Amino acid sequence: MKVTLKLYATLSDYLPEEARKTNQVPLDVPPQTTIDQLIDQYRLPPGLVHLVLVNGHYVPPGMRARQALHEGDVLAIWPPIAGG
Amino acid sequence: MAWARRILRVNLTKGTCTPEPLNMEWARDYLGQRGLGTKYFVSEVDPKVDPLSPDNKLIFATGPLTGTMASTGARYSVITKGALTGAIACSNSGGHWGPELKQAGWDMIIFEGRAPEPVYLYIENDSAQLLPAKDLWGTTVWHTEEAIKKKHQDPQIRVASIGRAGENGVLYACVVNDLHRAAGRSGVGAVMGSKNLKAVAVRGTKGVGGIANPAEFMKVTFEKKKVLAENPVTGQGLPTYGTQVLMNVINEVGALPTRNHRDVQFEGARKISGEAMHEKRPTDGKSNLVTNAACFGCTIACGRISRMDKTHYTVVNKPEYWGATGGLEYENAWSLGCANGVDDLEALTYANILCNEDGMDPISFGATVGAAMELFDLGLIKEEEVGFPLKFGSAEALTRIAEMTARGEGFGKVIGLGSKRLCAKYGRPELSMSVKGQEFPAYDSRGIQGMGLTYATSNRGACHLRSYTVASEVLGIPVKTDPHSPEGKAELVKAFQDATAVFDSSGLCIFTSFAWTLADIQPQLQAACEGEFSLEKLNEIGERIWNLERRFNNAAGFTRQDDDLPPRLKTEPAKTGPAKGLVNQIDKMLPEYYQVRGWTPEGMPTKETLARLGL
C-alpha cells in the first residue's frame, strides 16, 4: 500500500537526499505496517521522535506500536520543537 | 530587592525628568514589568482616555529579574492604552534595552503629556534629560539608533525608538530596540509617536545589585539554566530552528490561517518554513538563515539572523539591505506569507525587514494586507485606489504595500489603520480577523479550539502570547489535550493566562515555559527578592494582574460582546485537513470561562473575586 512519510527539522537528515527539499517521501509498504515499524525502518533515534501525526491527527507514544497505517496515510514526525 | 527601587517620571509637556521611589507595596503585589507597570498605569490614567491624546501615558517597565544572571532576564514591557485597540496594551520585548535601563538604576519610566517638538530621552545612569530630536524625526529606527550612538560617541548605548510608522499614525506601530527586537503589538509605537517622543536611549554601568540572597540566587539560576540546556525543546529545538519550525506543524494539523482565514492550510507553507530558511538558494548558494541569536542573558537563543539574496527583485539595487539582520520568526512568516497567500521567502524577509526598520507590527500589518486582498478579490477595493492589483499570492503587491505603509504613502495610509477600520470603511466589518480590533496571530481557532477562547478573552485583543494553549493542544507541553474539543479549555486558558502574567512580570521570557513551570521561576524570584514569593502567592499575583487588566477594559467600555470571534470562525467550517468541518465553539467555552474566573455571566469580575485578589 502507498503511504507518505514526512520528516521535519533535524529529522530531515534521515530522508533520502532528493526528498529533503520537500521533507517527504512516498513509500510502498506492506499492509498492516505500524507507525513504529516505519520509524524503525528509517532508524529514527527514539529521542528525536516526539510529535507524531497521521493525517494531521496526534498519535500518543503508547499507540505507535499498535496503530497500523492505511492506504494513502500521511505520517509526519518532528523532534521536540516549539515556537510562538 | 532585585528592584532598583526607583522610577523615572518624564513629563513631556513640561520637559521635566523626576525620580521617584518605587512603590514597594505594589511591587510585592504585582512583581514588576507587566503587572507593576499596569498597576501604575491604571492608577493614573482615565480608562476612557483617547489613546493618542496627551492624557494617555506610556510606561517602560522592567521586572525584578531583568538584567540579572537569571537566564532570559532580558525583558521589558511597554504599557499604555493601545492605539489599535483602545484596550489595555502591554507589549514585551527582549534584546538588551531592558537590562541597560535596570543597570542604569531604574525599574521603570513613566512618560506623560506631549512634547511640543520631537525629543528623545537620554539616560546615563542617574542622569536623565530630554534632548531635541527634530533631526531624527522622519527617519527610520535604524538611522535613529546609529545617529544617537554617534552623537553621544558611545556605541554601547541601547536605543528603543519608533520609525516613520509611529510618526505617521500607523495604528499598529511598535517600539523597536536593538534594531530588530520589538514591543510589537497594539500600537504602543503610535502612542509614543503621538507624544513626539522619538527614542529612549540608555547607558547603564551600575550593574544590578540588591539581590536578596546572592549565593542562593547564583546556585538556583545555575540549576535552572541546566534545566533549559537539557530540555530538548529549549536546548536544541528552538536554537536550531527557532519558532519558524512551527510552519509545517501547524499546516499539517490544519490550523494555519490562509488568505484571511478563508483556508486553514497553505500550499506554499513548506517554501517559507524554518526548514526552507536553512536551505542553500540556487541563486547564490547561500541560505537565508545566517545564524541564531540570543537576547541578554538568554541560554536558549531562538532568534533568527538572516541575509537576503542580493539578486532578489526587492533589494537588487539596495545594498543597505544586503547585510545580516533580524530574520523571520513564525508569526511574521505567517502574517506576511500565509495570510496573503505569498510563498516567496525572500519577499517575506524583505517585508519583515521593513517592519523592523520603520517599526510596524508584522502580525497586524500582514493580516491587514490579507483583509485588503480579500476586499480586492471581492471587487470592493479597486486597483485605481491602490495603484496596482492587490491580489492574493502577489509578492510584489505585498512588498510594495509594505514600503507604502512604512512611509505613510498612498493606500499605505489606509493599510496603516488596521483591518478593523479597513473592513468597516469598505462595508464588510466581519472580514476583519480580529478581536478588540487586534488581528489574530498564526493559529486558526477552528483547528485549535482553546486558541479561540484565548483570542476572545485576551485583554490586549487577539494574541497568542496571553495563553499559548498551542503548547498543550498541539505540542503536548506540559500535557496533551485534544485541539478539536472545547472541553476543559476554560480551565486550561485561565491557567495559562495567570501563569503567563507572572512570567511577563518577572523579567524573564515566556519561552522558558517550554521547559520551566512557575515552580522553576519561584525559587529564582525568592532568592532575588525580599519578602515571600511562594508558588501560591505567584499564582495569586498572576490572577490579580489578569483581573486588574480586565477591570480597566471594562471601565474603558469593553463588554461581553467584545469577547467574541468573527463570524467566519463560528459559521464557516474548516475546508480541509484534520479540522475539516469544524468551527470554533466559543459560545460554549466563554460562559464556562467566566464561571472559572469568578466573573458574572456578563464578564465582570464579581465583588467576591475582586476582594479575594485584593482589588
Overview of the structural elements:
The complex is a heterodimer of chains A (84) and B (615). By secondary structure, chain A is mostly beta strands. Chain A is built from 1 helix and 5 strands, in the order ββαβββ. Chain A has a 5-stranded mixed β-sheet with strand order 2-1-5-3-4, with no helix packed on it. Chain A starts with a strand and ends in a 6-residue tail after the last strand. In chain B, helix 20 packs across helix 24 (586-597). In chain B, 39% of the residues lie in helices and 13% in strands. In chain B, a hairpin with a 2-residue loop joins strand 16 and strand 17. Chain B has 615 residues and is an alpha+beta fold. The A-B interface holds A 6, 8-10, 12, 21-23, 47, 50-51, 53, 55-58, 60, 74, 76, 78-84 and B 231-234, 236-238, 240-246, 248-249, 252-254, 270, 274-275, 279, 329-331, 464-465, 468, 470-471, 474-477, 480, 483, 510-511, 514, 577-579.
Oligomeric state of the chains present here: heterodimer
CATH superfamily descriptor of the largest domain in chain B: Aldehyde Ferredoxin Oxidoreductase Protein, subunit A, domain 2
Strand fraction of chain A: 25-35%
Mean pLDDT of chain A: 96
Largest sheet of chain B: 6 strands, mixed
Helix fraction of chain B by DSSP (H/I, runs of at least 4): 25-40%
What percent of the residues of chain A sit in helical stretches (DSSP H or I)?
under 10%
The fourth-level CATH homologous superfamily of chain A is Beta-grasp domain
Main sheet of chain A: which strands, in order across? Answer: 2-1-5-3-4
Q: Report the count of strand segments of chain A.
A: 5
The helix count of chain A comes to: 1
What class do helices, strands and sheet pairing of chain A give?
mainly beta
Counting structural domains of chain A, the number is 1
C-alpha termini separation of chain B? 24 Å
User: Based on helices, strands and strand pairing, what is the structural class of chain B?
Assistant: alpha+beta
What Rg of chain B, in angstroms, do the CA atoms define? 22 Å
CATH topology of chain A: Ubiquitin-like (UB roll)
Q: Which residue ranges of chain B are poorly predicted, with pLDDT under 50 across at least 5 consecutive positions?
A: none
Give the CATH class of chain A: Alpha Beta
CATH architecture of chain A: Roll
